[in-house]
Design a protein that fits this description.
The protein is an all-beta fold. It has one domain: Porin (Beta Barrel). It has one helix and 19 strands. The protein has a 19-stranded mixed beta barrel. The radius of gyration is 21 Å and the shape is globular. Keywords: Ion transport, Membrane, Mitochondrion, Mitochondrion outer membrane, Porin, Transmembrane, Transmembrane beta strand, Transport.
Length: 283
């Protein structure tokens, strides 16, 4: 079995805590696919407090015969990005991505090469930016449920490692437990996820900053309850008293609505709460 990439080791926990919570914003996403396989995605979000709007248009086409995927995007910051992906062309499990970006109203430029390699029990990635001295890489090794991963960034100018993160964990049929050491083993996170029943998911995570012991341990609990085939509710709370609630409903095939609110239970009378909504169309 191929393990997840390093960023996705804690994905079940992270999704439980972050997905379907559009706090403080109104979001709209439209996805369509043409008959010849070209997909279009439009994302837009308005900050409720400031009124600022950000959006992005993305097109994607997969040439399955030659194993190529082309992606282009253009956002409201006038940043244009183009990406070419080659998968399983040179070797099984090897994917190479070339990503270029340019700002129309600025001198911002980017040119990156991403290399992914996955085989039984291993998933490795490297990210090389031609316009930056930093090189990042990560690797995940998994066997019989046990997972070990590491991530690092290397600065070519200074010849020093600028970032190191590591994760160990175990994934069972319906649960996951992980321990992460980030920022050169100065920030630790213990996380747990379980599918309690077919309708109930639960998770918890605790974070401790070794460099700031006075802050103690911050803890969060989260849960998801599936009401029926078309709706579910989510809730999360942390030890600072912040309560997040969300409701997601499939209005009809391809149309999904999420409503969410973040409430500071320690300051209920103050204007610190955040509401939000997200609407997704897919055809």
């Amino acid at each position: 079995m191929i393990p997840p990439n390093y960023s996705d080791i804690c994905k079940p926990v992270n999704d439980l805590f972050s997905k379907d919570y559009p706090f403080g914003a109104l979001k709209l996403e439209v996805k369509t696919t043409t008959a010849n396989g070209v997909s279009f995605t439009v994302n837009g979000a308005q900050d409720i407090k400031s009124g600022a709007i950000i959006s992005e248009l993305k097109t994607k086409y997969a040439d399955k015969i030659n194993g190529l995927t082309y992606t282009e995007s253009w956002n409201t910051a006038n940043l244009i990005t183009g990406q070419v992906e080659v998968a399983n062309k040179f070797a099984k499990g090897l994917k190479i991505e070339l990503v270029g970006s340019a700002g129309l109203n600025s001198v911002k430029r980017g040119l990156r090469t991403k290399i992914n390699y996955q085989q039984e029990n291993i998933f490795a990635r490297a990210n090389i930016d031609a316009l930056s001295p930093a090189v990042t890489a990560d690797v995940t090794v998994g066997r019989e449920g046990a997972i070990v991963g590491a991530e690092l960034a290397y600065d070519l100018n200074s010849g020093a490692v600028s970032k190191t993160n590591s994760t160990i964990g175990y994934a069972g049929p319906d649960y996951l437990i992980t321990l992460q050491g980030n920022n050169s083993l100065n920030l630790f996170q213990l996380a747990f996820y379980q599918r309690v029943t077919k309708n109930v998911e639960a998770g918890a995570r605790a974070v401790y900053d070794y460099k700031n012991p006075e802050g103690g341990v911050s803890a969060e609990l989260a849960t998801k309850y599936i009401l029926d085939n078309d709706a579910y509710v989510k809730a999360k709370v942390d030890n600072a008293g912040r309560l997040g609630l969300s409701f997601t409903q499939l209005m009809r095939p391809g149309v999904k609505l999420s409503l969410a609110g973040l409430f500071d239970t320690a300051r209920l009378q103050e204007n610190t709460h955040k509401l939000g909504a997200a609407l997704t169309f897919e055809a």
